[in-house]
Amino acid sequence: MKMGFAETDITPQTPVTMVGFNRTDNMSRGILDGLTAQVSVWESNRICCLVTIDNIGFNKREANLLRDMIGTMIGTSRERVMLSFSHTHAAVNVTVEKEYYDKLCQQICRAAEKAKASMREVSVGWDNAQADIGNNRRKSSDKVDRRVGILKVCSSNQNDLKLIILRLTAHCNVLKRDNYLISADYFGAVRKVLAEKYHCPIMIVQGSAGNISPKYYKASFTPIDGQGEEYVNCKHALENMAQEVSEKVESIFDTIYTKRGMRVDAYSKYIPLQSKIPNMIKAHKIADEAMKHCGINGQKWIEKIESFHKKGISFQEEHLEMQYFYIGNWCLCGIPNETMTEFALETAQLLKDPFFYFNGYTNGCSSYFPTKEEYDLGGYEVYWAMLIYFADYERVYPYNREAIDTVISYAVENARISL
Predict the structure, then answer these.
(1) CA-CA distance, 371 to 374, in Å (whole number)?
(2) ∠42-76-82 over CA atoms, to 5°?
(3) Which residues have a Cβ under 8 Å from the Cβ of 302 and sit 6 or more positions away?
(4) Per-10-residue mean pLDDT for the chain, 419 residues long?
(5) Rounded to the nearest 5°, which phi and psi values hold at 85?
(6) In whole angstroms, what separates CA 38 from the centre of its chain?
(7) What is the residue-wise DSSP string for 127-186?
(8) Which of 9, 53, 170, 331 is a plausible cystine mate for 134, CB 3.0–4.6 Å?
């Protein structure tokens, strides 16, 4: 197996529109730390590519366009190119900032070309640490995926460390809505600390963090997702998140033994899912609640639902892409949604495989994907976010209540435990 790596600075050079918080003014006011896109290109019997991007997540059209461009550049197909978004709430709204998006795509494609040209034979090994970096947003649940997935990549003779890939699970919004500075959030802090410690590049993949808030945060107020003794509001919140990860990685890192001769593969499966169009009584009730609790104006969402009813449309359907990326038996599996932590916990349990990681924010970010329990509770993750982002999601309502069971079963059925 061969691997090549490259990265590129994607920090905007001028003020840009940010995304992630419901604010009237989302224009950035400076830079706290830079944004990065990283590319690792892998080859055993075929070429596969893993890309991590400091962004909240593109819509699926934007993501697939970039995947096609990368595939053309390195000689592989879209289904063997996986994009993983950090979901930082302090990055650029690429749907609004078209010039930035176009430049970003060009930069990442050049990085992919450079990574492919640098491919050398490598050895890999993996293990899990456990870190305390997040809490479940729902006070009624204590479910949290605390796994820190560690993939260690060395030279073929095992002497030189070439790359570390981490898989973490906590929302990338340590910086709250009073922050207007561009930032990679705690992912950037983790990369900095570990790169200084291990003298190699650090890639980070976001897990199923839709309902997992960061333990540490920095804000001038107490946000909804930071209430309770389990959260810490402090000046050095980014550094505290990074230190927790660093200490837990260090505790097991030297015990991870790497091997040659692993295989790499990536493939996609597609699952049809439906979401109903709510009746107008239900729609107005949701819009009123969103305005009351979050100040969200749902008028355009209401108008879109009215247009569906006038056309006699009662539901929307999409074929959701589920992508698998295997390095040996270490697997990243993801969909383009904000998945709840239950997706990851239940798939790993059903497969009896702690190295199977079900992730959100993969190849896009198209709405929260609630559990059945959260579906019944309603609120921002289930309904209200739709009022803001329905045009990007190309859907006005959450998937049907039983969809989580369908997706989890599908993920397990299509997993290849051994290549």
Answers:
(1) 5
(2) 60
(3) 280, 283, 284, 287
(4) 98 97 94 98 96 97 98 98 98 98 98 98 98 92 96 94 98 98 98 98 98 97 94 98 98 97 95 96 96 94 97 96 97 97 98 98 94 90 92 93 96 80
(5) -95, 135
(6) 14
(7) EEEE---EEESSTT------EEEEEEEEETTS-SEEEEEEEE-S-S-SB-TT--SB--HH
(8) 170
